[in-house]
Design a protein that fits this description.
single chain, about 160 residues, alpha+beta, 4-stranded antiparallel sheet, about 65% helix, about 15% strand, globular
Length: about 160
């Protein structure tokens, strides 16, 4: 459990530090700031959840989304407490830290600060932040672990 909590704290700190640094960096520049032919730094305030779903709920929406995220964090902490696989502990830590980073923004600002903008020609992926990346990476690790563990379990059943 200590591994997962440590990763959650690190993810939270990296998320908040990156948001602070990018906001300070962008305050002196015109936007969007093109860094490569496929990547910009932008300022976007997301009042909804992933890809701005449920956007426009105002302060009540921010409170409800934050409350829901905190319920999910409690569930993930319970899972983390019982999890023995180090890779899943790291993944849960990434998800917990990312979720808390976005909850912190939502409660402090009423919206989540997004700044990473990847694109191809005129098609832009929705802007996101480090917390969103941590949540996605954690989810992918859990899915991969589950698939690999399921395959091992199936092979054990065949050997019986």
């Amino acid at each position: 459990m200590i591994l997962g909590i440590s990763i959650a704290v690190l993810a939270f700190v990296v998320d908040q530090a990156s948001k602070w640094w990018v906001a300070a960096f962008l305050s002196e520049r015109s936007l969007p700031l093109a860094l490569t032919p496929f990547f910009n730094l932008v300022e976007a305030w997301n009042t909804g959840v992933s890809f701005s779903m449920f956007d426009g709920g105002g302060i009540m929406g921010a409170v409800l989304l934050s409350a829901f995220a905190l319920v999910v964090v409690v569930f993930l902490l319970s899972w983390l407490h019982h999890e023995s696989a180090a890779s899943v502990q790291v993944a849960l830590g990434l998800i917990i830290g990312g979720a808390l980073g976005n909850v912190f923004d939502r409660l402090r600002f009423g919206a989540v600060y997004d700044f990473l903008d990847f694109y191809y020609r005129n098609w832009h992926w929705p802007a996101f932040n480090a917390a969103d990346a941590f949540i996605c990476i954690g989810a992918v690790v859990i899915v991969i672990h589950s698939l690999l563990n399921h395959k091992k379990q199936s092979l054990k059943e065949i050997d019986k």
